[in-house]
Amino acid sequence: MEAADNVLLKTVLIHNKKNCLVTLFSTHICWGLMSCGADAIGQYLEPFYYQRHESVPIQEIIAITPEKIQHAQEKKQNASLGIELISLETRSFCLHVVKRVGGHRWRVRKVIFDCPDGQACGDWIDAVQSRLNSKEYGRPKHLLTFINPFGGKRKAVKIYEEKIEPLFYLAGIASEVIVTERANHAHDYILEEDLRHYDGIICVGGDGMFAELLNGLLRRTQQDAGIHDANQETKLVNPRLKLGVIPGGSTDAVVYTTCGINDPVTSALHIIIGETVGVDVCSIHQENQILRYCVSMLAYGYFGDVLIDSEKHRWMGPKRYDWSGFKRWCKKFVYEAEISYLECPDTRHHPRDGSRCFAGCEICNSIQHSEGESLYSDDKWQTFQGRFISFQSITMPCRCDLSPNGVSPSQHLSNGYTDLIIAKECSQVDFLRHMWRVKSKTTDQFDFDFVEVHRVKAFKFRPILEDGEDEENDDSNGRQRLRTRQLRASSWNCDGEVLTEGFIDVKVHHQLIKLFARNIEDERQLKTDFCETSCYSCSARR
Ligand SMILES: Nc1ncnc2c1ncn2[C@@H]1O[C@H](COP(=O)(O)OP(=O)(O)OP(=O)(O)O)[C@@H](O)[C@H]1O
Ligand SMILES: CCCCCCCCCCCCC/C=C/[C@@H](O)[C@H](CO)NC(C)=O
Ligand SMILES: [Ca+2]
């Protein structure tokens, strides 16, 4: 029988008051009613096929726990003896597994099995637990958790205590919790403290809070490795520690993009199962210094201004971005810059190629980068100079409630590129039409002649703040004179943090960090593929 050598344990157990054959394989667990054999506990006949069955990959088992159940026979005995409860032998166990409830939301499902005796129950718990502990699954055991009490709707502490802590306890994860007392608390802690005991660092917060972990960890890693990260040509070292986010902010674009939803329980389950995805990181430089690292959106102009304004309305919570977005739209501002970029050499990869980055993305896995090569000896740099309302560099799709399809829907988490989206000078109505499409799930938001997009490995941005000479009427003496008109400067919105430096050089580092998340699943594929990929019974029939 196919895959028989991967069978670790096979017993008839009772599930939902029926005899079920339960089989533990090295990669999954399968249970179901059989079409022949097995009518008594502990005995089964071969060959057998499951009539109806269920299969769960080991990766998706959150925990296995003993279940104290008073069995029917004991109940009867106790009732006749007038005893309320005698000591219960643990001969049942509960599998806590990932359940998909739609819209990328994950929940915990409990599946209970009754064993013939305590010994059999212990054997099952040990066998499953030993698979869960296997290094191949990379499940975290010790986490460092930062909670930002001031992000989003200010519910992060409550979210952690009520929803996350019990799940970590169930999964046997020890978490050291730090509720931050100021901005940069987490960043500074990561730079200075001993992190050797942890498998990962997570936060309950938004994109700004995640940016603190990212910047702290990358700086610490380069520092410990003696790497000079100010030099853009340097090959950076990948951190050992993985990062994770539980949404507790306003936009939560990092978590929405990598889990498909901003739901705290879903994110906790992604962290518990230990699956990781590589994520591209931009390093932002000015002359010979590094300013920051960025993973989602780096924006100048409209979104830089929206961020500055939105900080004044923090009390509004997540709605502040809509309000500030509207206010900035009312006052149209135009910026000018010289932008040079190194475009992706493979023309099949483009912000409008229609691709989507799903879990196990083949595009991300197949793209090759020669990270060691100097970018600046490359003669393929192209330069654009012009006026625009909004300039964005989007390194992951940036899905969020404000933009469910993403700011760049065909961008990938780990392709080693960022997408430049330039909304050039246009009427307010046209800009609104573009924004409307970014917010809605309908048509191609880039299908406008004033929107330019490029998929790039690196770019340089030089704001132009003086506009040559303009003729101007001077009313006091009626003469005309020439004057240099000052253009407006904006600031950068870097993963939701303000960066005031104007001219910058940016380079994408392919899969520099690992994030505890599976990446968004293609839900259409899940429905059709599930049995064929992970169900032993179905594969045995084929
Ligand atoms: N205790 C604290 N007091 C004040 N600010 C803090 C504290 N802890 C963290 N911060 C800062 O709060 C900022 C915003 O936090 P966070 O990103 O969690 O929420 P948000 O801005 O509402 O969400 P999003 O970034 O997703 O829009 C971060 O820049 C972080 O540095
Ligand atoms: C006229 C109304 C316009 C409203 C603008 C809505 C457009 C949606 C675009 C959302 C961008 C999301 C990308 C992620 C950015 C985050 O890093 C950042 C901080 O959390 N959030 C924002 C809104 O800047
Ligand atoms: Ca990317």
From TrEMBL:
GO molecular function: ceramide kinase activity
Domain spans labelled DAGKc: 138-288
GO BP annotations listed: ceramide metabolic process
InterPro entries in the cross-refs: ATP-NAD_kinase_N, CERK_C, CERK_PH, Diacylglycerol_kinase_cat_dom, Lipid_Phosphate_FormReg, NAD/diacylglycerol_kinase_sf
Key words of the record: Kinase, Transferase
GO cellular component, one term: membrane
The keyword Lipid metabolism appears for this protein: no
Leader sequence segment: none
PANTHER family noted in UniProt: CERAMIDE KINASE, ISOFORM A (PTHR12358:SF111), SPHINGOSINE KINASE (PTHR12358)
Annotated protein name in UniProt: Ceramide kinase isoform X2
Species of origin: Lingula anatina
